[in-house]
Amino acid sequence: MPEHMWRGRAALAVTAVGALAAATACSPGSTQSGGSGDLAGVELLVAAKWTGVEEENFTEVLAGFEEETGATVTYESTGEDTGAYLGPKIEAGEPPDVAILPQPGLVQEYAAQDALVPLSGDAATALQENYTDYWRQLGSVDGEAYGVLLKAAHKSIIWYRPDAFDQAGVTPPGTWSDLTGTTATTLSEAGITPFAMCGASGWTLTDWFENVYLSQAGPQKYDQLVAHEIPWTDDSVVQTLETLAEVWGEEEWMAGGTQGAVQTDFPTCVSEVYGQEQAAMVYEADFVAASAEEAGATVGETAQAFPFPAVGEDSDAPVVVGGDIAVAMSEAEGVQRLMAYLASPEAQTTWAGLGGYLSANSQVEAGAYPDEFTRTLAQTILEAGDDVRYDLSDQVPSQFGATEGKGMWAALQDFLRDPSDPEAAAEKLEQAAAAAE
C-alpha cells in the first residue's frame, strides 16, 4: 500500500473529539431521554469498559436510539476488568441489558453459563446483512449468534518518527526482511535505537506474536491454534518465535535494552518514541495515535505509521483486529431493538464521524470517517476479506490469553527476556494452554 495512504490527520486526536462530544453528550453515565416513540417508558442499561472520550462518543450514539424509539438508555462503565464487573451481577440475576465484551472468549464463557440471549428478529437480520461470515462466526457459539462486533481496533500497524527515518536515510519497509535487514540495522548503525518495546504490558507481546504467526503460518493454522487443534509446540509456533527473536534478541535494538523492553508498559513505550525520542519505532494498534498526541506529536506528520510487514516472500501482510462485542444479557423489551441499532450502519456511521473509531460493518462507507488515515485503516479491515483475523489471545480462554502474570503474557515476557530457546518457550505455551482448558 502506498505510504501516503497511511498519512493524513487522524481522527484520533482526543482533544478535538472530546470537545465535540462534550458539546453534544448529556450528563456522564446516561443519555438524554428520547421522550415519545414506541419504546417510550422503556429503560435499558448498557455496560462497557469505556470512559472519557470513548464514553462520551458512545453515549452520543445511544442518544440516536433514544431519539428514534423513545427509550431511555443508561450507560455504566465496567472498569477495565469486565469479567469482575459482570460476574457478581450475573450471579445475582441482575446483569445489564446489553454488555460490550472486550474478548470473544467471554462470549463463549457467558454462553456456556446461559447468561446470554441469542440475537433474534431485526438484530439477527442486521448481523446477517451488515457483517461478513467471519465476523458473524466470531460472535456465535455452536451456530447460535450472540454478538455484534461494535468497535474495531487495527492491530497491524508499526508507528515511527519520520525525522529519525530521514536522519538514517531509510523508508518504511515492505517486508519483515526489509524491517530487520535494512531498516532496523541502518537505524542502529546511525546511532538511533530502532524500537521502543512495551513488554511490561504482556498483551502487546501477544499482538507481536499474532501478526507474525498470521503472516508466516497463514489463516488456517491461525484458526487451528485458536481452537487448540494443533499444539503450541507445533513447528509453526516455533518458527514464529524464531522470527520474533530476530528483533527481540537484538538488545541494542530496544530502548533500554532487554531490561528496558521488559519493564516498559504501554503507553510509556509510545512516549519513548514521541516526546523522549529514545527510539524510532513502536508497534501497537491505531489507538497509539492518542498517546502520541499526548506526547506532543501530530498524527500524520511527526507521527506516521506503516502496515505490519509480510513475513516471508510468499506471505501476505497480516491484518489482525481487536475490538469490542455487544451482547444481549436480558430479554427485556427493547433489547433486541437496541442490538439491531448497534449493528446498523446508521449507528456506526455516527460514531465514525466522531473519530477514534473503526468499524467492521461492511455497510459503513469510507466517507463516514473524517480523515484519510482512518479511512485507510477501515478499508484494510474490509479489504482483507476472509484473511482478516481477530486477536488470537482474546479468543482463547482468558486465563491463558488475557491474564497478567499467566499464560501467553508470562511465557512471551520470559521469551523477551531470553529468546534463545524457542522450543522451550513453545512448550511453556502449550502447558499453559492445556492448564487453562
TrEMBL record:
InterPro entries tied to this protein: Bact_solute-bd_prot1, SBP
Query: What start and end residues bound the annotated signal peptide?
Result: 1-21
Q: Which UniProt keywords apply?
A: Signal, Transport
Record family assignment = Belongs to the bacterial solute-binding protein 1 family.
What protein is this chain from?
Answer: Bacterial extracellular solute-binding protein
